[in-house]
Design brief:
By secondary structure, the chain is mainly alpha-helical. It has one domain. The chain is 67% helix and 0% strand. Helix 1 packs antiparallel against helix 2, helix 2 runs antiparallel to helix 3 and helix 3 (45-61) crosses helix 5. The radius of gyration is 14 Å and the shape is globular.
Length: 98
């Protein structure tokens, strides 16, 4: 049987489901799903990056990873880009005081 190939939107939503659990396992799984959505390079790329930013932020906030481990100085730039792309406009769209 061939493996299931999910659309980026499905990967993103599954990632948000895992992220909302707010557990170490859920956050790590959400990173995997957001990265899969990101690799699809669809019009959903912005949302995948936003999901990565949120997941990496909570992993660091909860002390599950060191910030230096997810944002290495010379390594993979994806986490850094995700955090840099996280804008205050995303918060203002959902927050009444925004």
């Amino acid at each position: 049987m061939a493996p299931t190939i999910w659309k980026p939107t499905t990967l993103y939503l599954k990632g948000r489901f895992q992220w909302n659990k707010r557990t170490a396992e859920g956050l790590k799984r959400s990173v995997q799903l957001f990265e899969q959505a990101h690799r699809r390079r669809s019009g959903f790329l912005h949302w995948a990056m936003r999901g990565l930013s949120d997941a990496y932020s909570l992993l660091a906030d909860y002390g599950l990873v060191k910030p230096a481990d997810i944002i290495p100085a010379g390594g993979n730039r994806q986490p850094r880009k995700a955090l840099e792309n996280r804008s205050d406009t995303s918060r203002s769209a959902t927050h009444p005081s925004g």
